[in-house]
Amino acid sequence: MVLKAEIHCHIEGAASPDLVVKQAQKYGADVSGFIRDGAFVWDDFTSFLAAYDQSADLFRDEGDYARLAETYLSSLARDGAIYSEFFTSPDHAERAGLSAAAYTAGLAEGMRRARAKTGIESRMIVTGVRHFGVESVEKAARFAARCGEPLVTGFGMAGEERFGDPEDYVRAFEIAREAGLGITVHAGEFGGWESVQSALDHFRPTRIGHGVRAIENPDLVSRIADEGVVLECCPGSNVALRVFESFENHPFPKLRAAGCKVTLNSDDPPYFWTTLKHEYEIAREHFGMDDKALTSVTRTAIEAAYVDKKTKASLLARLDGAKR
Ligand code: ADE
Ligand code: ZN
């Protein structure tokens, strides 16, 4: 089995409908508005975000988040993943009545349990939600910078990328950068190439969440390749959300051929009927990638990971060992 690594997944978006239904039973909540026949119900980005928010609202204490992280990471490990970096959202926890600190501690507990059981290594990227506003994104950055949880190694911004003025969010990224956190930002998913360029200019990330709409501007593609910015590509998510109408139209192969560093990720797997394993299968089937090419994608993800040098070296050694 090809070893895998994931660096773009929203932990709230990784909760399966089954797990969300169990949470709803625990809290006596009704899920019929966003889960039907065992699947999440949505039909565009706005209704997807609404379903996502309602599901997140059913994770309310440390134990809920420990179970969520442990369940997700264990499933990744079963599918051959050796590393996972997932996005956290203190805003969602606070909306559900839990402090950012307790939320992060719960997730960290789940990560430790998953590692003890399966060996999977993992880290957290705290995110602000762009459409929740500048103040809340800065608050998330301050939390990330000061929380003291060693498993928090990055900061990012998700949500509606067309919302707000990029300049207003610069401070949040500076707070995180000064604290030594890795920087990534969602851009070039529902915004066009200008959104990617603006994100690079304003936030100076080493990685871009999605970034695939950069394909609309060849100069920008060259810049991404030259600067070694890593693209956290999520083809299954893009096709489900109709950013591209089919895998045949997805720019992953072109970006890769142009020398961009590309990775494969599941984003919010059960919402998009995918898993990390399925993303690797999509790349095999639609992008013509073999084991060697897929392993090089895993290598790119590990090289781009926001993890200490020693852990990175041991993950790369594991990858090299598996190739022989
Ligand atoms: N939050 C969760 N999933 C997202 C996505 N695909 N784009 C932007 N924000 C998100
Ligand atoms: Zn995402």
Automatic annotation (TrEMBL):
A single GO molecular function term of this UniProt record: zinc ion binding
Top EC class of this enzyme: hydrolase
Matches recorded under InterPro entries: A_deaminase_dom (IPR001365), ADE (IPR028892), Ado/ade_deaminase (IPR006330), Metal_Hydrolase (IPR032466)
Cofactor: Zn(2+)
UniProt KW keywords: Hydrolase, Metal-binding, Nucleotide metabolism, Zinc
UniProt-annotated catalytic positions: 189 (proton donor)
Function: Catalyzes the hydrolytic deamination of adenine to hypoxanthine. Plays an important role in the purine salvage pathway and in nitrogen catabolism.
Cofactor note: Binds 1 zinc ion per subunit.
Protein name as catalogued: Adenine deaminase
Domain Adenosine deaminase: 4-320
Annotated site, Important for catalytic activity, chain positions: 210
Binding residue positions for substrate: 268
Enzyme nomenclature, EC number: 3.5.4.2
GO terms of biological process kind: adenine catabolic process; hypoxanthine salvage; nucleotide metabolic process
UniProt superkingdom: Bacteria
Keyword Lipid metabolism applies: no
Keyword Metal-binding set for record: yes
Enzymatic reactions: adenine + H2O + H(+) = hypoxanthine + NH4(+)
